[in-house]
Recover the amino acids of this structure.
């Protein structure tokens, strides 16, 4: 049987998971025929890595994306580029007759999102959004307990997510530090969290009210650490020996190969100072979200805390379900496993009304994002992925509703007013329920 033809645009740290998967574990079903990136050095680096494995995929610079589609005629396009470029690649691929697999977030604002919604409707092609947290066994267990009715009808949710001074700080070094590129953490990072909430509750956001600020990753905070004369980047900063946020990308094989060795091509520095005045995204955010189902959720995201992970609680008519999770420390693209659960630091506890608490057994899975990465890849790339009883597979609708809460939060932080989510785009249906 002929293999399906696949191309990928965006070859940075997150992109490796996909081109590696289709050229190794799933190579009997998929043929990687083209790769594309904005940086010619990184493009050549990945091309040479593939060539050493006997894979001769066409290599195209980002400006030649349309030519790649025309020459490679892919069945599927994988999009793992900078967030603000997702919409152009997605709509271009759909119009060329390809289906799309895209990293989260689907895009960064309502204008770009509307273009994707319209193009899906016009072309009839499919967009798959890769929410790996849905595939983590512990998050699936939470959904199963809620679906069992153990807490009754959910009335409210308390959801707090912590990013630490390793992974969290890293967003302020990279292109994510600018809202025009990432939509800020309310879109880029919180899309994971809002998607989990939507999925757990089988609902979508109706109204969002938000407040946010940047008061940790600032020049004032640098001064509190006696780093008043810091440089613009870690690599050549004379304060590097005394800064607890120093990142030596020259000492990390993965970061060096993907970024440092190729910055001469585009001037992109992977190790910008986290205290730079040029940063324009928030580091402290709080929201109140009202869902269409009537559930009210309080949500917070802080990106400078001592530990990485989250706490979520569901308050229902029959009791309360609490779920805590701590994750291991990492820097994106450093070669370590991202979002791996800490042993013994993840729990699910049920507190029924008028009865004793009950600890729910937690199945700890190895691998990225709480063991979600590998099952996600199987579901996307395997020949027979199997049934989907929990509704894990996310299309453009799920991707849209996950970012609409963040887009609405950005608007609310700008205006100081609540935002009705449905006013942001037109023609968007709710995802199918499992």
């Amino acid at each position: 049987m002929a293999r399906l033809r696949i191309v990928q645009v965006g070859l940075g740290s997150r992109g490796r998971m996909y081109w590696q998967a289709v050229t190794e574990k799933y190579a009997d079903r998929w043929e990687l025929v083209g790769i594309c990136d904005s940086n010619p050095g990184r493009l050549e680096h990945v091309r040479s890595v593939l060539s050493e494995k006997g894979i001769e995929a066409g290599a195209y610079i980002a400006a030649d994306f349309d030519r790649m589609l025309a020459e490679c005629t892919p069945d599927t396009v994988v999009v793992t580029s900078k967030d603000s470029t997702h919409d152009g690649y997605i709509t271009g691929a759909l119009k060329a007759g390809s289906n799309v697999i895209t990293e989260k977030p689907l895009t960064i604002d309502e204008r770009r999102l509307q273009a994707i919604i319209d193009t899906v409707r016009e072309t009839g092609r499919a967009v798959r959004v890769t929410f790996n947290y849905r595939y983590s066994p512990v998050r699936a267990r939470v959904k199963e307990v809620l679906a069992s009715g153990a807490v009754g009808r959910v009335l409210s949710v308390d959801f707090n997510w912590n990013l630490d001074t390793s992974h969290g700080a890293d967003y302020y070094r990279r292109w994510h530090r600018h809202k025009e590129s990432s939509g800020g953490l309310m879109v880029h990072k919180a899309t994971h969290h809002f998607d989990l909430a939507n999925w757990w509750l089988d609902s979508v956001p109706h109204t969002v009210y938000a407040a946010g600020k940047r008061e940790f990753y600032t020049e004032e905070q640098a001064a509190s650490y006696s780093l008043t004369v810091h440089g613009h980047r870690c690599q050549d900063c004379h304060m590097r020996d005394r800064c607890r946020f120093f990142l030596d990308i020259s000492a990390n094989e993965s970061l060096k190969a993907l970024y440092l060795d190729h910055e001469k091509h585009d001037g992109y520095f992977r190790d910008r100072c986290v205290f730079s005045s040029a940063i324009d995204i928030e580091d402290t955010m709080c929201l109140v979200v009202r869902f269409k189902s009537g559930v009210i959720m309080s949500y917070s995201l802080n990106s400078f805390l001592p530990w990485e992970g989250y706490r979520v609680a569901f308050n229902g008519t029959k009791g309360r379900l609490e779920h805590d999770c701590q994750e291991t420390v990492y820097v994106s693209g450093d070669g370590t496993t991202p979002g791996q659960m800490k042993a013994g630091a993840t729990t699910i506890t049920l507190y029924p009304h008028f009865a004793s608490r009950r600890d729910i057994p937690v199945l700890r899975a190895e691998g990225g994002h709480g063991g979600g990465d590998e099952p996600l890849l199987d579901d996307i790339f395997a020949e027979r992925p199997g049934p989907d009883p929990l509704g894990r597979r996310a299309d453009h609708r799920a991707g849209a509703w996950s970012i609409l809460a963040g887009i609405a939060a950005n608007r609310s932080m700008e205006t100081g007013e609540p935002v009705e989510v449905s006013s942001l785009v037109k023609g968007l249906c709710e995802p199918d329920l499992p």
